[in-house]
Design goal:
Nucleotidyltransferase, domain 5; ACX-like_C; ten-stranded mixed sheet; single chain; alpha/beta; six-stranded mixed sheet; about 700 residues; Hydantoinase_A; 5-oxoprolinase (ATP-hydrolyzing) activity; about 25% strand; about 30% helix
Amino acid sequence: MDGAIAAGEAQNGADWKVGVDIGGTFIDFCALEANSGRIASLKVLTTPDDPGAELMTGLTLLAEREGFDPSRTTRFVHGTTVGINTIIQRKGAPLALFTNAGFEDVIELARLRMPDMYSLFCSRPDPLISRDMVFGIPVRMRADGSESQAPDMTAVESAVAAAKANGARGIIVSFLHAWRNGAQEASVKAEIARLAPELFVFTSSEVWPVIREYERSSTAILNGYVHPRVSGYLTALEERLSSRGVPARPMLTKSNGGLMNAAEGKRACVNMLLSGTASGVIGASWLARQAGQDKVLTLDIGGTSADFALIIGGEPQFGTGELIGEFPLHVPSVSVSSIGVGGGSIASVDAQGVLRVGPESAGSSPGPACYGRGGERATVTDAMVVCGWLGHTEMAYGQLRIDTKLAQRAVGELAVQLGRTVEQAAQAVLDIAVSEMFVEVEKLASRAGVDLRDFTLMPFGGGGPMLGAFLARELGMKRVMAPRRPGVVSALGGLVADLRGDFIRTIFSPLSAASLPAIRDAFEALALEGRDWLAAQGHDAAAELNVSCDMRYVGQSYEIEVVLLPQWLADGDAAAIAQAFHLTHQQLYDFHDPDGAIELVNVRLSAIGAGPALSFPEIDELDTPASPARQLPVYTGLCVERVNLYDRQTLVPGNRFHGPAVVVQEDTTFVIPAGSKACVDRHLNLLLTFTE
């Protein structure tokens, strides 16, 4: 490890901070001994049949190899895919929905949009709650928050009995205009608790009190759908950590890139659905700032998917409406685009003789054929092995040995179907994987309105460095930066993340001097809520409060988020708020209407408690050529060439070399194509530039 002391030399007074991230194939560990600045990292294969068992295995290996002392853990941060996998696999809790009588079709109607408007065969996903489990309750709240009709508790009692009879484990209560006043939802929740205490209940106003009934309802449904599995997993996590003598209260990475404690995670499950992908972007942002890179495209490739995100000005981009499987998530989250192409993605030939890659994945069990764990179908990883880019050292910190013959056998079956040599078939698999990622990245760049030629690609995850340089070359990008430990960037993100809570109030008011007192009151209420939330997380230091508003021109259907200065609210400066909206609209759409009337829909506040101040040592660069360990035969697309292999552990700042080349390390393999120059910077990042 970087600056590592020998295993077993645990120091008295050690202060261990541990970040853990579970993916589809591996669980990643990044442990910092804060007193010495030593970083220890590790990857362990996941155990799908017993989620959480791999965590204990990893902690044991850290103790054996790195001298990790569980009893001296002062920070433990965990990211998990339990929630999102529950939705994708549709293995969540059977739920019932209580809504207003006459509005029982709210989740089926949704927004009447098709996932792919240009496909004749496209269909919308089946709702997570079937129509026979939706119950209309005679009740009505007016838009101004006054009650028009009190809940009919007799109807509630009948609905509870029917829901129980149909096997419901939980109930979601979502009524019209609950964003304005959640009293009706709260009273029905209390009645359900009296009638059926064995059922869990969530109301839309407590999960995310935002205007628009579909968005509010669907968010509450996602929260309830994953609640039993997430809650059970987190309870088991706390018990396992306690049994290992870990005193630190576990913290969880959130979709918004921040942290929360496990107790809150059991209730606010929806906030951690994208925790793994968000944590990776947070880790990448921290590394980008350390290296002075202000425009970065991140590429996180695991066993199942490839995730992309933009970092601008050293900060990740945020948004709402990210897809969880087939369903939109309306709480704030780090903006990440995903595609089902990863190292374990299976390649196949369809009935028309067309080669396809993904989205089906071999996962960790059985995994790619070359792992020797029972997999027989060719994957992207197998194609890398056949071409010769991969398989020359042990992988995943010595846990995997690559079997080249098994990879050749699996890819050979594709080659027969395609009428190509095994190397040509393998190259075709890689070309298709890169092309599919290319299409997704181009969509992301178009939506954001950026020119990727101005950006640096940062590949991470186990598979990012394998394919990242090929993708950058196709996109016309000039620079690639591979961190020192790309395989555990998501786990690092948990170590450097801040506490972050997001809060919202719907105002729905024209922007004017007369409306500013209501906006200011909403901000003050949210600020109090945010500080109380930070205190409940155990944060007693200064808090950073960031305020924004969702605004639009009168007549527009959807609003944009505009960052505000609290001083504008305190001073009642409506003109400054309007100007900020016009500028933001201009940036997004290249248009603004300086005379247009403006509506303010939501006030948002992010309460941030700064995480630990960490830094990695910098080492002076010495301009020297790198020494290869040996040469390898590699099929580079047209023929077999002899390329240099370098050991990342021996590379020092200032080392330089040319592609094509292969750089091996414990957590991944960095493939460097022809026409590129590589050097190591003072942070031990590997920088790649393409020549014209």
